[in-house]
Fold these 4 entries.
Entry 1:
Amino acid sequence: MKILIPVDGSDSAQRAVDHVIKQVPLLKDIPQLLLLNVQWNVAKGNVKLFINQQTINDYYREQGIAALQSARASLDAAGLTYQYHISIGTPADAIAQYAQEQAVEQIVMGRQGQGGLKSLLLGSVVKKVLQIADCPILLVK
């Protein structure tokens, strides 16, 4: 079984990781775990006129690694193997696309992301993933 856990560095995303760790001993086979962090595309418009692509790529990588740090530490401590990937784009679309590309059987995600004003402006990633993903989704409170 392939399980995708989208991780944005929020407490809610960490609860999803912790939930999967607790469920693994109950499963017949150890699942293949995929962590995904999606970075918003900041290189739009004239940004590339002032910042080179390598600097932008380094920024995405640094932010993605930072967001994944806690989830990776938890999975390492539990002795579970996993793969991680950092995508650039709109989070809900990137999550659904990655799940489809990887033939994921389930997405496990927190009910809310980083929240606050950001979530009001950007809308609910969870709500959109529920609408567009082709596989079952488990929301962790």
Note: The beta strands are 2-6, 32-39, 82-88, 106-110, 137-140.
Entry 2:
Amino acid sequence: MAWFYGFKTIRRAYSYVIASLITPLTLLFLIYIISDGRLVTYAITGGFVAIIASNGLASAGDAAFFRLQLKIQDLFVTTNIGPLDYMLGLTFSFIVFSIPGLVLYAVLGAWYHLFSLTNSLILIGILLLLTFATSAISFIIAGLVGHVRNVWGIISILSVVMTVLPPTFYPYRLIPQYLLYLLAISPATPAAVLAQGVFNLSPFDPVMIPVLLIETIAYVGLAIHFTRWREK
């Protein structure tokens, strides 16, 4: 599934990859201009988070289409494939789809000398948890909607609420602590806060470690429940 819906999608429809980069790159440009380059490292670090989160949320459209139009889940129910297998297959395809954007931001990060071996490995771990959390949210949405056309409006709203409003592209210290914890309902918030701390851009907040872990487990559990796997 990762090969067919990941690598094959990049080759068949590379315009979708470009479209997924439009918002992060636009915000990067605006932040660079407005801050006169002072906050560009925040925007680069947040770009990793935004790419993963936005692609994870956008995958709700694919998951809903597979369930409602193609009836793929109905086919898999009669096999040894379970809901978790199905979700992991699509999730890894979304990771593959995000690779071009991650490579682009890796080049930008290297240009600004952001990386070391330690913070790179920690960032990979943060992004993996974020991938599972946001993909799980997409499966929850796909399991609840009754028609594919309803997905796009929900995704558009959540993409702003869960990737732009959180301190993804700006220092998390700029917002009050109560608002930070309110925005932490989006897994992009603890991921961005941890990334800023790991890259020494802002003080490290250890509270966000259990927040991201608990959210990932909770969202994955809800996704398994709402995937509507029915055995006959």
Note: The longest helix spans residues 40-70.
Entry 3:
Amino acid sequence: MNPETYAVLHARLAQYLVTLPDKPEETVESTLHALWHTAAGSPRSAVAAMRDAPPPLPPGPRTDAVVALVNRRLAGEPLAHLTGRQHFMGLEMLSAPQALIPRVETEMLGYAALELLPPAGGADAPLAIDVCTGSGNLAYAIARHRPDVRMHATDLSAEAVAFARRNGAHLGLAGRVQFRTGDLLEPFLEPAFAGRTDLVICAPPYIHSAKVERMAEEISQHEPRLAFDGGPLGVTLLMRLFEEAPRLLRDGGWLAVEVGAGQGPALARRLQRDTTYAEIRPRADAGGEIRVILARKAGA
């Protein structure tokens, strides 16, 4: 690499870069490495970019490109949109404005959900549905980690579903996830899924509508509002899922959801009062905040 250019850009990022707490993988170093690799023609996420030293960038268009990318990042464009990549549960995924950028909280949900699936090798392959799939990150991660699972996914946004299909081709997992477009679980209200589904998983919009305009511009101006605006109380879709998921879950099947900061205790209590569910397992992050709730349908 060009040490002088690297040093200048590193200093600028160190002075002016503002990072978000829900993207802890983005540091000055990982940001510059990711943008440098992208300018060199090998786009990488912040995680993947740190595995190798930045390649040489000869003076000229490629050096100009990394300077321009740094400027755009400092102006507030998300790193994942500039590189077109985001790391998620071991997958180097495509990222674009059509879908929410996957976060670490959603990785927590994905790994928790993998623990809930019936063991491989059973008489019937497990059946799972990812709701509000966005880029398809949860669906593809489950499909990669559990090749035996019959994985389905849906989103209200046709643009998000089209983008998720592109991700399948990029990941070499095209055909492993069957996509539908529609409102929450509505696309699956049919006999093939009713009472037969082992897992319903969802990272829904859960931000209070009134807070959206006060969010960091990196989110509010660049990511799809449909993917994070959770309505007047922030829990509209979560409450609907609690009511609707049992129609699809088999007895003993699991609902796994991501919840917003501060929402977990009240939502867990709401589910504990619901006799439809036999077991509730809240999961807290490293700071003690409940960010995932797992609920097992009664009857098994």
Note: The domain at 88-297 is CATH 3.40.50.150 (Rossmann fold).
Entry 4:
Amino acid sequence: MGEAANLSCYGARKMDTHTEVTTTGWFSRIASSIKSVLLGLLLFAGAFPLLWWNEGRAVRVAESLDEGAGAVVGVAADAVETENDGELVHLSGLARTEDVLKDADFGVSETGLKLIRSVDMYQWTESVERNKKKKTGGKEETRTTYRYKRSWSSTPIDSSRFSDSQGHGNPPMRYQEVTRLAPNVTVGAFTLPPELVSKISGAAIVPMDEAAHGKLTPTLQQRTRVHEGAFHYRPTAVDGTFNAAQPEVGDHRIRFSVLKAAEVSIVAKQTGSSLAAYQTKGGDDLLMLKMGRHAAEAMFESAIEQNETLTWGLRGGGWLLMLLGLGLVFRPLVVVADVVPLFGELLRIGAFFVALAISLPLTILTIAIAWLTARPLLGAALLVAFVGIITGLVLLIRKRKAKRTAVASADPQFLRPTG
């Protein structure tokens, strides 16, 4: 009874907000910004090994894919040919199984490659919005608005970290998402390892009904209802008469989906009648699965595109890490200038462009040096680009300086103090 009373209060409010206004003095902001310099230096320094590692990874994967594309052997899935043992093979066919997968908690059983239990819990969530305003004298006013609302979430939310946890408490999540894989999956005459089975997608929802509800334990039946094809579980319910259309905090929404069979294309090493990862001389393992029937060439082209996308994403991440780090290093100067908000804003813009002018060439230089050992021509091209950027910046600075000097010479009053 105590548990029921405690959990029922969680649903007392659906959404609310509260706002906090804080003012930080100039000296406090300076002290805080000085501390941020160390973090900035760490981020700046960390960008270099990230960029270097990414280039090495990209080369290793690219060389492994090139090697695999040249070595792969196409085989029929309906027979195992012993002469291909240990070779990198490509095959397509229907992945299937006779295994029955069971969820012991809810009594659901299905024949299929995968049985997935998806769980959402109705919880309080906190969103934070901050608006900062500079004040004369270097002070900064921060208006922070916290918004609380109830919604479904597949991961437990720790309400103890909320700014206002009173009345916004979330109970523990009783059930979690679980994916069960069939141990015996075949494509023709070949048996798939769990690593490949886990890559197969396309599970379909299994609607829950009253028959499925009847398979639950008596206690679980009292706390569960069928609603919109899913189990609606209320931990505080003592019978099954609650309204699932009006959820309370702590309620679980449990769905099941099953993957019966699927057409797949695979590139892997043939090991007897099984398949495994293929170790390339380039250093990367090849174990590829793509939904549907695809030629080996198309699978390798897709893998090459994915590698290029990841490579450019990590390059951009390394550059942003460097840019952010420099921004934190320059932060004390900006805060000092904030004693007059307009000066602070101008210096903030200037610091950004300085950080940009430093981080972009260094990013290109790091990538170029990393590539010199593996792809000399591309590395040399990047070095030329680096030199071009630096030269362009120097010429731009000289041009602006020369223009300023010319204006000063034509008008002696230009640099003379006024007032």
Note: The mean pLDDT is 88.
